[in-house]
Write a structure and sequence with these properties.
- The complex is a heterodimer of chains A (155) and B (159).
- With 155 residues, chain A is mainly alpha-helical.
- Helix content of chain A is 67%, strand content 0%.
- Chain A has helices at residues 5-35, 44-80, 90-96, 107-123, 136-147.
- In chain A, helix 2 packs antiparallel against helix 4 and helix 2 runs parallel beside helix 5.
- Chain A is elongated and about 60 Å long.
- By secondary structure, chain B is an alpha+beta fold.
- Chain B starts with 10 loop residues before the first helix and ends in a 5-residue tail after the last helix.
- Chain B has one domain (11-154).
- Chain B has helices at residues 11-42, 141-154, and strands at residues 48-57, 63-73, 76-84, 93-99, 103-111, 114-119, 135-138.
- The model of chain B is unreliable at 1-8 (pLDDT under 50).
- Classes of the chains: A mainly alpha (155), B alpha+beta (159).
- Chain A binds chain B through residues 6-7, 9-10, 12-13, 16-17, 112, 137-138, 140-142, 144-145, 147-148, and chain B through 52, 54-55, 68, 81, 83, 97, 99-103, 157-159.
Amino acid sequence: MPNRRFDWHEHIKNVEGEYQAARIAVDRLKAGLVATPDLVQMGAEVRARLREADRNLEGTYLVRLFAAFEAALRSYDRARFNDPTLQEDASTLIDTTGGRRGQGISAAVRDGAHAVRRVRNYWAHEDDAEPAPMTITNARARLEKYLAWLPAEWA
Amino acid sequence: MGVVSESGNDPSTTDQGTAMSDKRDQFQELVLALVKQVREWVEPHEWVTKSYPKKMRDVDQKVFEIPALFLQKGPTRVLLDPVAYDVPGAEGVVDLYLMPTYDDMASLYFESGEWVIHYVFPPNPMETHSVVQATALALSEETINQILDSIADHAEPSF
């Protein structure tokens, strides 16, 4: 696991970039199939899956985005307590992680990360309560802002 | 399919690998020069800069280091971040993000031997047209400072 905050920031940004590339690809394929129905030889089920993939694309990448963020917090938490086996859940990590020089992370920033966590829970079927819509861009901004409170490096 | 040499390596694959590592080395040199140049251009305009080694993976999954550049003026923080070198139509891409949220602000492409910066200037409230278009400008001391100052004046983090 990387121990430089900057590497985690970059990892999260890269996931957003992959989403944008996948979004363009799916949109192009959809448009191509409208113009040329036999563009790709595939059965009705695969077409139906394409519709689902399109509908779920942002949620799928949001789960990855949050997984990267959670891994960053876990890496920091394990280093902080010098225990490589620590396995706190995401909600606890968000609430208990301290900021630089021991100061707490602001409530607004913590709430921002929790909002992304709730959306992740919905998409990962951990929670049936439908959260307010959230774009990948907004989720990335919330998680990056939280991470910015961590030290530049940890042991 | 390429011919397999006695060593078991496919020469065409090896050639591709060499070409890609050449591109990687070229990208590193381009970004090193870009970071040095941008520092020289913006520091006299009250931007404080700090270079940071970014780890990237090349096509062979080998990690290499390349400089990223943090820039700060007052409360505005921006990151000049190398993104990729294996890009159709350009020999390298470097993005400019608003920090700490990593919001996309501008992109720099190395095309035909020069860096070109793409940026959407905020609409002038005195003008009535509503079409917002990215402007592509050759990178210079004037254009980088114009864009950084526009970011400092107008950009707000998305969260």
